[in-house]
Specification:
The structure is a homodimer. The first copy, chain A, is built from 16 helices and 25 strands. By secondary structure, the first copy, chain A, is of the alpha/beta class. The first copy, chain A, folds into three domains: 235 residues, Rossmann fold, CATH 3.40.50; 168 residues, Rossmann fold; 107 residues, GMP Synthetase, Chain A, domain 3 (2-Layer Sandwich). The longest helix of chain A is centred in the N-terminal third of the chain and has 17 residues. Chain A starts with 34 loop residues before the first helix and ends with a helix. Chains A and B meet through helix 1, helix 6 and strand 15 of A and helix 1, helix 6 and strand 15 of B. Chains A, B: Belongs to the ATP-dependent AMP-binding enzyme family. Chains A, B: InterPro entries: AMP-bd_C (IPR025110), AMP-bd_C_sf (IPR045851), AMP-binding_CS (IPR020845), AMP-dep_synth/lig_dom (IPR000873), ANL_N_sf (IPR042099).
Chain lengths: 564, 564
């Protein structure tokens, strides 16, 4: 039997698609709020496919009209559960309708969406639930075990079925009943565009996670910019590979709706499944960190695409070899840079002059983080503070050499760290957000991240960027992925230690000959890197330790080399 | 000798491209301001061609870096001339660098740009200069005769040469000297995004023109929406056919810069010149009212385009025959709707189901004004007020039949009528902007303008839309353009009177046989229109009276028929 939305998901005929306006607003001022997007989509393209969740036991397919009704039901259900404006609603879910709904429905209840990474440990989840003061938890059935015992707040479990009998569907259904068909005009539009939208916690490899608060205004402007910069339009299909809980899916849960695009949600990063969709589902866009992109291009199913796909890449700079692998099969990389503290904030803008360059040379330019994004504002690289009281921001010269810290300000920057004024003040030193990312400023104004402060290798008194070393080593034809950390050296203070994963077809080639590979790689590095940056040690490993969001855990690698 | 920008137009090396930030702004709030666009373009694409003014005695070609410097020079020159924040700067110019500069440079001086239509009479210009209280006038050399005698404010004349010796160039040069290379950081960024950006006067066929004030916030959001909706990007080339003084060029002077597009300015609407650029200048976008579009497709040089061009059409609905003519040669119409009181506010969004329709049927859908634009908010059709005290807005049913008035609200709507609180209050009846445009609301939520209130023909007690009649008559193969007005009729009260311009190749066909054509057209109308809407009278005329912005002057036509 073909899929049918549950009866409470079907909107009444001629439903009004606007909320009750707050009193006292001037005619020419409408507070910016990404909730507007779904209402507009349901008005203009009610029957267009909005949200597809195909690779599960119970697939679902929602049009904008139906999805919009489900979002309204969610808002009423939350209000019925006692949620008041500003309350936090925690969501623990992989990519699925639940978390997609929540990006709109929680805002419709004027609540704040607290996204929790499904890859965290129960203790971390408990900390975040407690710190955020979440008043209700929406959780996917596979992640119920992450919840602490003795919870004092209500929990709604989704079986991810979209069918009657699923507790989440019952929750939505109750919302519809509770609304008594007051519909959208029964909900009030948030009058303050500075009101919080999301609360996302940093993955925090050191220290406790911090809660990043973003605003409705910032979310709206970031989403519009992402749709524009990635050229997502109504004929686009976006594949959800990046987890939506990761910094609010870089605002793409809203950008796609703004664009009237169709979204396909995948519960897990499953490369054969991704390729199935690339080849059969008219996918045009997806987001992913380089580590995921590496998995995509190296999957056995990878082959030249019939139509180009745009890949938005962030989280780390793509290497030349990755860019080349992507382009070869028709994936067009769009390199952007951001942190949990905001959506994409810079973009690598292609220059006409690059067309004449070799791929190798072009990739070096493409690996730069670039310039401020469409609706972003200032991106600067400034000297790090001399001491605790140093709040003056002084730009480093535009020489592509002097290392400083990236600072940003503007509408896309976070509002604050939740319930942590001290950390907020520190992060906002000098009236800008201090990212902690070390970078140089090139003469053309492009920012290039050299490293996180703690990842720099001080070798013979020289600062070696572990990222720059990784960029060079990654171009070796046998290397799939590489990470470099500092290791103590009696003579030079520190020296680079490289951890390498070989490509599938190269594993046999070097089997039992890792020493030979180590020599080969050092020889490969010699003409490409300054002496102090050449790896002193090379380890071939089957895998690299990663954070729950897919970043390589250099702290773990440092712990390993500390014992050597 | 190839063109060289004047020495003061060349920026210093490593110029800082940001203004002095106002104090006290939170890190996550940057007031929206379209001035940001040119600074960002000059930062990211300094050497890209930004502004081309080719078809004059002294052509000019500016890169973003040079243009940005000229804009800065203009800001300092205005400040040197005594311009303070909020002062009005009047500009009287055809499409040219002067008026393009002013869209950015006046905002950089925190002043308000008062755009004056070059097609007005001197008395109207005098009224606007006086009413706006403009403190300085920048005027193109061809329009100096429009200025009233005994002006008490300074006047800067541009010879539109871009060469030394031109008084406007001297003005810019003085600005550079005056700035003492303080550059952009010597100018303060406007802290209030609700601050006025433009002051444009309605063409006002009846009564005195009213001054429409738009805000920085509204201008920013409208420009971003236009770039997104029209898909203007860095590889785009925009041809300036629409006068920039017409409602601020529908915010495209900013949208194009936001997109990093190249702009080509044409002083006049010259069809052979337009075709020269269509065929040789890689044009991708332009704006124009239907009357201009008719001129374009009927020009002898018209032929199928090697690459498609997007035409943004507003001012009136395109007829089926126009849409077909445009599409045949590769021009893709984007039908939007707005007034001087805001930029484009609705758009006709193509529906998948239209693909199966005949052109004739599809055109009927495409002629609708459609749904709210990307960053616009509410568009409603409401019953007209019962009396002066009636401020309640009641939506008409979505039946595609009941006629009401279009009302709008949101960030793109004007802030107020300048120095006219009474007209502002009246226009903002019920907390929305009352457009005066009569429309129906279709079941799918699409708005379709039926007429301006005064253009409705009350024929035998029925309301006949002059627009609807024109739409049908325009499909006759011999008709280039048609306008229909009410004429008194002894029996029916009013009956439609059609004024027709024949296509060039049809003029001879009907020469001396206008009566026969009149019969033919009435017969053509009969199966297509209800009896009360069929034209009772048909006049073949060589031209139609038009307002300075190219709209047909129905008041003049009504005056003619009143005498018959």
């Amino acid at each position: 039997m073909p899929f049918q939305p549950t009866p409470p998901s079907v909107p009444p005929k001629n439903a009004t698609l606007s909320l009750r306006q707050p009193k006292g607003l001037p005619v020419h001022v409408q507070p910016l709020n990404p909730l507007q997007f779904i209402l507009r989509a349901a008005e203009i393209y009610p029957d267009k496919l909005a949200l597809v969740h195909p690779d599960v036991k119970d697939p679902v397919f929602y049009s904008f009209a139906v999805w919009c009704q489900r979002i309204q039901n969610l808002a009423y259900a939350l209000i019925q559960a006692g949620i008041k404006p500003g309350d936090r609603v925690a969501v623990i879910a992989p990519n699925s309708p639940l978390i997609a709904d929540a990006h709109h429905g929680v805002l419709a209840a004027q609540a704040v969406l607290c996204l929790i990474n499904t890859r965290l440990k129960p203790a971390e989840v408990a900390y975040i639930l407690d710190h955020s003061g979440s008043s209700i938890i929406l959780v996917d059935h596979e992640y119920v075990h992450l919840l602490p015992p003795n919870l004092k707040v209500p929990v709604v479990v989704s079986k991810d079925s979209g069918r009657l009998g699923d507790p989440y569907e019952q929750f939505l259904s109750n919302g519809r009943t509770y609304s008594q068909e007051r519909g959208w005009p029964g909900l009030e539009y948030q009058a303050d565009e500075g009101f919080p939208a999301l609360l996302c916690y940093t993955s925090g490899t050191t220290g406790r996670p911090k809660g990043v608060v973003t605003t409705l205004r910032g979310s709206y402007l970031a989403a519009v910019a992402n749709a524009y910069e990635s050229r997502i339009h109504r004929e686009s299909t976006y594949l959800w590979i990046l987890p939506m809980f990761h910094a609010g899916g870089w605002t793409f849960p809203w950008a796609n709706v703004f664009a009237f695009a169709t979204q396909i949600t995948l519960r897990t990063v499953d490369y054969p499944l991704i390729w199935k969709h690339f080849l059969n589902s008219a996918v045009t866009h997806y987001c992913g960190a380089p580590t995921v992109q590496i998995g995509i291009v190296n999957d056995p199913a990878a082959k030249p695409l019939p139509r180009p796909i745009s890949a938005i890449i962030a989280g780390a700079a793509p290497t030349a070899s990755l860019i080349s692998s992507l382009e070869e099969i028709g994936i067009q990389p769009i390199h952007v840079y951001g942190l949990t503290q905001y959506g994409p904030f810079t973009r690598n803008y292609a220059q006409p002059s690059w067309a004449a360059l070799s791929l190798q040379d072009r990739s070096k330019f493409m690996a730069r983080q670039g310039h401020a994004f469409a609706t972003a504002q200032d991106v600067r690289v400034v000297y790090q503070p001399k001491d605790e009281n140093d709040t003056e921001l002084v730009d480093v010269p535009r020489d592509g050499k002097t290392v400083g810290e990236i600072v940003t300000r503007g509408n896309i920057v976070m509002k604050e760290y939740f319930r942590d004024p001290e950390a907020t003040t520190k992060a906002f030193r000098g009236g800008s957000f201090n990212t902690g990312d070390l970078a140089v400023m090139h003469p053309d104004g492009a920012v290039a991240v050299v490293d996180r402060s703690k990842d720099i290798i001080i070798s013979g008194g020289e600062n070696a960027s572990s990222l720059a070393i990784e960029q060079e080593l990654a171009s070796h034809p046998d290397i799939l992925e590489v990470s470099v950390v500092a290791r103590t050296h009696v003579k030079w203070g520190e020296r680079p230690h490289a951890f390498v994963i070989l490509k599938t077809h190269s594993i046999n080639k070097w089997k039992g000959r890792h020493d030979a590979f180590s020599k080969e790689l050092k020889a490969y590095a010699k003409p490409r890197l300054p002496g102090f940056a050449c790896p002193e040690w090379v380890d071939v490993v089957p895998e690299l330790p990663k954070t729950s969001t897919g970043k390589i855990l250099k702290t773990d690698l440092r712990r390993i080399v500390a014992k050597l």
